[in-house]
Design goal:
It comes from Absicoccus porci. It is a single chain. With 122 residues, this protein is mostly helical. 54% of the residues lie in helices and 8% in strands. Strands 1-2 form a two-stranded parallel ribbon.
């Protein structure tokens, strides 16, 4: 969808993304200036097409599943899958955020969360 924004323009992106989270200027900067087509492909297409291995280890250390409250319904299938295959996973919901909002709009919060996770597991 983001890649199509490069072709379809801002009107298409405004329909696809929550306007209360991203202003027109945010979308224009993030999609049209900041991200190359290759970055978009690597980030979205490759992740969404990753095939999980058949033999998943029972424990692979600390696993956290982060998601935004505004995307909870859309992540329902993913959350069920993770709960079934990784029962030790810790689920962390971020209030007031939609899909990918932390990385694009709250990078300091993301850095703090990652730092806490890394320091706990050193």
């Amino acid at each position: 969808m983001v890649s199509m924004g490069k072709v379809g323009g801002l009107k298409l992106l405004e329909k696809a993304f929550a306007t209360e989270e991203y202003s027109r200027e945010d979308l224009q900067y993030v999609v049209l200036h900041f991200m190359s087509r290759k970055t978009i492909w690597r980030t979205f297409v490759s992740c969404n097409n990753y095939k999980m291995p058949n033999n998943i280890p029972k424990s692979c250390g600390c696993l956290q599943y982060w998601y935004g409250k505004k995307e909870e319904k859309d992540r329902n299938w993913d959350i069920r899958y993770v709960k079934e295959h990784f029962p030790y996973a810790k689920f962390i919901r971020f209030e007031g955020m939609g899909h990918a909002a932390m990385a694009s709009s709250y990078p300091e919060k993301m850095i703090n969360q990652l730092t806490q996770l890394i320091e706990r597991n050193e």
